[in-house]
Amino acid sequence: MDIVIPLFDDFEPLDAIGPYQILGYLPEATVRFVSAGGNGAVTDSIGGLRPAVPTRYTDVEGCDVLVVPGGHGTRPLMTDEAFLDWLRRTHATTRYTASVCTGALLLGAAGLLDGLAATTHWAAAGELAAHGATYTPERVVREGRIVTAAGISAGIDMALHLAALLTDETTARAIQLHAEYDPMPPFDSGSWAKATPAVRERIRRLG
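Given the sequence above, the corresponding structure tokens read:
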């Protein structure tokens, strides 16, 4: 099973690493990172993670699963016709095409979300309509073989959902157990609806 995750400068690290951690444990699965340049490093949105990515995305003509992460680096790619065309061509070959966070905007810019329900990071929710999609405030939204996840940490939920679709629920549960993914967050502030005005103001300044 060939799983491809494109990386780019300013990608959100957990968007990519969360699904990689989960999907990499699927039986007979290989997870490959690809980038625009290949044979070089890309830098995450925080700045300290610089993975070397040896494969160019243009060298990939198809895969079983495509997972598109988000981050500030999605913005220039939304008008990069070469990259968007690659998304369209690759999607035509997949069993499932997925996104995390603002990766959904790249699927939308490629025309893959037209007429569909989808989710993304709360800060980008209003942008989905411009791509013909209907924002749905859920952690994971599946429309046929397109699966979108909300912001950052929701990529782990999405990957477990995919794991069950690609194998079976018991396997997905076993991978969840291995990851000890049993969230008990110290604060009930993980969504815009739950955040206090003070927290909302602070994230505006931090972002």
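The mean pLDDT is 96. Try to locate this feature in the token string yourself.
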